[in-house]
Amino acid sequence: MWVIYIAQLWRIKQAETGLTVSDLCREHNTSSASFYKWRAKFGAWTSR
Length: 48
What we know:
GO terms for molecular function: DNA binding; transposase activity. This protein has one domain. The protein is 79% helix and 0% strand. The protein has helices at residues 2-16, 21-28, 32-46.
C-alpha cells in the first residue's frame, strides 16, 4: 500500500518541478481528476 502512496507523491513532485498536469497524466495514463484528488490528499506531505 505504501508503494502506491510513494508513486502518487512522486507524481505530485513532478508537477511541482514544471511538468504540466496534462503531460504528467498522459505519461502515467491517469486522469487529471485523479491527480487533483491525490494532490488534495497528499499535497501537504510534499510541501516540506
